[in-house]
Structure formats: C-alpha cells, structure tokens
C-alpha cells in the first residue's frame, strides 16, 4: 500500500470513528470481521480513492444493512428444503475449493441458471446469504488457515448453455449485480470466464469498452473449459466440475454424482451453509418456535452502477442477435 493509499485509509478511518449509531457500528464490525483496513481499502478502490465518496458509499451500505436487517439474514433459512433445493438447481452458484494462495473459488453457472423455481425475493435472499456466509464464515476460516488476511475470492463464470432466452433474466441479474457493486465492493480478485459460446463472444466486444480499467484487469476470458490456465492458480481438486474436461458443461448433475457438483444442495458447501443458517435461526429464536416460512424482502437499490451499464448493453445486444436470427 502506497503512501497516498495509507493517507486515504487514515482519513476514512477517522470519518468512520465519528459514527455514533450503535447498530451501524455493529454492522460495520460484521463487514470488516476484524480487518477494518482491508475493508476501507475496498470501498476506497470502488470510488477511485476519493475519501468523501468512499465514506458516503460505506455509510449508505451500513444504512442499507440496517434497514433490511442484513446482519440477521443468516438466521432466516429458506424453507421448506424442497424450495431451497429448487433455488439451488436454478441459481447455479457454489464453492468449488481454494486457490494455491488460499482464496475461495466461487463457481457460477451463468448460462444454465434459469431463476424459475421461486420469486425474485427468494433468489436475492439466497444470494445475500451466500455473500454473508462467505464474508463471516468462509473468509475468516481461510484467513485463520493462511495466517494472513484473506478478504477476496476468485470467480469462475461458466457460460455453457447461454441463450437468447437469458434476456428474461436480465432484470434479476441487474438487481443482484447492483447489490454487490454497492454493498460488497471489490470482493473478487479475478473473474475467469469459461466455456464461451458465440453469443457471449458477439456481445463481449461491445461490453468490454464499458468497463473501468480496474475491472478489465480482473477479467480473463479463457479458451474452452479453461482447465490448463486455471491449474496454474489452483489444484485439480478445486476446479469446478465444468472445468475438469473439455465439453463437460455446467450440467447440474454429472457422472460422479452431485457431491462433485458444487452447484448442488448435496455438495458439502451448500450442506454446511444451510445447516449453519438453520442453526443460527434456532440460536436467535426460542427453541419451541417453528422456523418461519416466506422470503426476506430486501429493498433493491437503484441500478446506477457499472454493472447496470453492462446488463443494459447486454440486453440490447441480445435483442439485436434475436432480430438477426429471425431475418
């Protein structure tokens, strides 16, 4: 960290010390998990080291967390389990392992996620719960194991099966991206994009110029399933199932069973996450009280971020490709 960065962190830390609301202070502790400097740096990076803008962004994040009870979201399991299984089968996300440097590897099945088994609110709730579990459980555990702060992750985006029909999911993806941009900034070290079909290649040329230089440097579009390149940064055991051989795709079930499929509810990561949330619900509430059904309704922030521009452009390009195919 250079001198300019150190000074910016110092100024932002001083501003945060003036926060008097105890609920906001508690939320801030949940965010930084004992590593406030790294957290302040993330918000500063997201606002190009403009201290006042980073301060406003962080305060807005704390207010959003307070208003939507995000600090308690890990006490609200999605029940019944059949509903949660449907969400896992249609919102393809999971933890496949760790990089050689100890960073969690998050796999995302962009192309085959359908988001058609539950309401938007359930999918948003599930996404935020995975964010919070990552930040409060997975990253602290990795930090302890590595003996140094682990505050970011790697993401592998599988584009297998991406079709023009994905246009119907743009609004939900924009909502999720906006939540991440505004409240979980700079949590991803590198994005690896694999199994790229023509439809993505056609859109990428238009999308890339919209990205900030900082974001461009994080994105690597790999050849095929990306196995050879990914093995430079992680062991074979940490590769998502869709990267283990050419043409495997991001199918929900593979020949070795769902235990190897990090998207499946039967995978150890999702089993641990779901058990953790149910246990926290019991700790939070009286033992005799039944776990409450129904989704958590989180206020969706106004989409005005870099991610929103990308999805708007993606929507436009999908529409063009759709028109071209009809001609």
UniProtKB/TrEMBL annotation:
Source organism, top-level taxon: Eukaryota
The CRAL-TRIO domain, residue ranges: 80-240
InterPro entries: CRAL-TRIO_dom (IPR001251), CRAL-TRIO_dom_sf (IPR036865), CRAL/TRIO_N_dom (IPR011074), CRAL/TRIO_N_dom_sf (IPR036273)
Alphabetized Gene3D superfamilies for the sequence: CRAL-TRIO lipid binding domain
Pfam family, one: CRAL_TRIO_N
PANTHER family referenced in this protein's UniProt entry, alphabetically: CRAL-TRIO DOMAIN-CONTAINING PROTEIN (PTHR46226), PHOSPHATIDYLINOSITOL_PHOSPHATIDYLCHOLINE TRANSFER PROTEIN SFH2 (PTHR46226:SF5)
Protein name, per record: CRAL-TRIO domain-containing protein
Species annotation: Brassica carinata (Ethiopian mustard)
């Amino acid at each position: 960290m250079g001198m300019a960065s150190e000074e910016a962190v110092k100024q932002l830390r001083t501003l945060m010390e003036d926060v008097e609301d105890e609920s906001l202070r508690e939320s801030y502790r949940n965010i930084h998990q004992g590593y406030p400097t790294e957290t302040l740096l993330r918000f500063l990076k997201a606002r190009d080291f403009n201290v006042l803008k980073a301060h406003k962004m962080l305060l807005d994040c704390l207010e959003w967390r307070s208003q939507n009870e995000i600090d308690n979201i890990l006490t609200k399991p999605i029940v019944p389990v059949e509903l949660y299984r449907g969400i896992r089968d249609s919102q393809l996300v999971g933890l496949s392992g760790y990089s050689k440097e100890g960073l969690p590897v998050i796999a995302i099945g962009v192309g085959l996620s359908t988001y058609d088994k539950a309401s938007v609110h359930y999918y948003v709730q599930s996404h935020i719960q995975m964010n919070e579990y990552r930040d409060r459980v997975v990253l602290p555990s990795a930090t302890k194991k590595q003996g140094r702060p682990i505050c970011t992750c790697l993401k592998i985006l599988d584009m297998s099966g991406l079709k023009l029909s994905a246009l119907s999911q743009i609004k939900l993806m924009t909502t999720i991206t906006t939540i991440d941009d505004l409240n979980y900034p700079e949590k991803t070290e590198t994005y690896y994009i694999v199994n790229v079909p023509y439809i993505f290649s056609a859109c990428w040329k238009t999308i890339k110029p919209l990205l900030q230089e900082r974001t461009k440097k994080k994105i690597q579009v790999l050849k095929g399933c990306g196995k050879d390149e990914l093995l430079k940064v992680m062991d074979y055991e940490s590769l998502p199932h869709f990267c283990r051989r050419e043409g495997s795709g991001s199918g929900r079930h593979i020949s070795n069973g769902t235990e190897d499929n990090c998207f499946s509810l039967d995978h150890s990561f999702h089993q641990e996450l779901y058990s953790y949330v149910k246990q926290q619900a019991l700790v939070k509430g009286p033992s005799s009280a039944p776990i409450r059904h129904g989704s958590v309704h989180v206020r969706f922030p106004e989409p005005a971020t870099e991610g929103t521009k990308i999805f708007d452009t993606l929507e436009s390009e999908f529409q063009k490709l759709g028109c071209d195919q009809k001609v």
